[in-house]
Task: inverse folding
């Protein structure tokens, strides 16, 4: 076969890799003179060629890579030394939440340890596999996919700074997600737990069921807000109730869902009807608090948790623990393995199911995009998704 010449557009390809313009794909020349089709993906073809050259043509690969990894001072610089600056850039540009930031910092520490003696130009798919084997060999498919995504992110920033030419993490096949082991919460289990729960936990459960939102948002609902603002959950009350075909509306419950904080649908406006109003009114007791879900802790620590702003506010983790403890005391899920027993978060799925059975689309209410939802705009120009009036009714 005639040699496929490189054009001025393909001079940056590794040695012995060619682009066949007639077929629109890449071909590698093997050491025996034959050509092998590598497909149309440029990055994949480059990565495979570099790996092949490194193994089959070690003298060429070694000499080229030695030149590539010499820095301006004439010394070898390995990838591990760049990770701190790459992480700094990731944090500045992506502004992750505090929790995700801590995860990124831990991942960066592992990567620095692993790549401390590996030149950036030498990193290939086998390094990705070895990294996962060393630090994440026993994790679930979901966790491994997240760790591959981390490497892909890290390498993409390295490519942007000309430290690497290709992203080997893009070649790693994603694992199929495991089926969810945890069982859904049944309505009769919910009712048994609710019957023995203290008032504050009943309030949390009821608010989660009626709004379809999770523990973090529920823990932040304030009795009253003067106007809707970003990152605030609370009730805005009308001076006089509004009458509609569905019933009286006493106000609007504004919820900011943090998990999708950067998406438009994360700001949800839920009409406060009879059921929500009864839940909120019933939650009021002798304890003075701004939060609908409140309690006086047994021990008053000087330092508040990261998710609470007041002594009476119940932390999301405490809501989960209290629910799971009562679930086990009631014994409604004793026939299930511990890992299969539904947690407080499963109230959200139960709510979606109950709304769906009533013929109500729960998507927009859950801060998911829904064509039937209505965008409204507040004075501070925050986009809110106003969901239709809806309540879960028990027979």
Result:
């Amino acid at each position: 076969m005639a040699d496929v010449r490189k054009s001025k557009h393909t001079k940056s390809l590794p040695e012995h890799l060619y682009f066949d313009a007639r077929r629109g794909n890449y071909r590698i020349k093997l050491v025996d003179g034959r050509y092998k089709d590598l497909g149309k993906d440029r990055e994949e073809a480059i990565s495979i060629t570099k790996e092949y050259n490194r193994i089959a043509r070690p003298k060429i690969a070694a000499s080229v890579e030695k030149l590539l990894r010499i820095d301006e001072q004439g010394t070898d610089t390995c990838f591990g030394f760049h990770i701190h600056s790459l992480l700094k850039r990731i944090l500045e540009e992506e502004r992750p939440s505090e929790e995700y930031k801590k995860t990124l910092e831990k991942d960066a520490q592992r990567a620095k340890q692993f790549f401390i003696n590996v030149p950036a130009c030498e990193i290939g798919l086998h390094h990705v596999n070895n990294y996962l084997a060393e630090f994440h060999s026993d994790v679930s498919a979901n966790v491994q996919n997240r760790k591959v995504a981390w490497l892909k992110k890290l390498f993409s920033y390295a490519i942007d700074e000309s430290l690497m030419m290709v992203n080997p993490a893009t070649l790693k096949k994603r694992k199929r997600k495991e089926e969810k082991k945890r069982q859904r919460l049944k309505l009769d289990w919910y009712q048994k737990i609710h019957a023995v729960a203290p008032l504050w936990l009943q309030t949390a459960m009821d608010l989660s069921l009626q709004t379809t939102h999770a523990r973090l948002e529920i823990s932040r609902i304030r009795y009253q807000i003067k106007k809707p603002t970003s990152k605030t959950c609370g009730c805005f009350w009308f001076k006089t109730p509004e009458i509609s075909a569905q019933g009286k509306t006493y106000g609007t419950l504004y919820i900011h869902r943090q998990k999708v904080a950067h998406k438009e649908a994360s700001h949800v406006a839920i009409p406060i009807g009879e059921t929500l109003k009864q839940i909120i009114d019933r939650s009021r007791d002798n304890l003075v608090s701004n939060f609908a879900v409140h309690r006086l802790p047994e021990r008053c620590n000087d330092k508040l948790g990261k998710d609470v702003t007041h002594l009476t506010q119940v932390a999301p983790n405490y809501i989960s623990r209290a629910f799971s403890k009562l679930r086990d005391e009631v014994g409604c899920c004793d026939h299930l393995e511990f890992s299969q027993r539904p947690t407080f978060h499963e109230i959200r799925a139960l709510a979606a199911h109950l709304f769906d059975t009533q013929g109500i689309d729960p998507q927009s209410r859950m801060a998911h995009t829904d064509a039937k939802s209505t965008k409204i705009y507040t004075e501070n120009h925050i986009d809110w998704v106003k969901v239709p009036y809806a309540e879960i009714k028990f027979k």
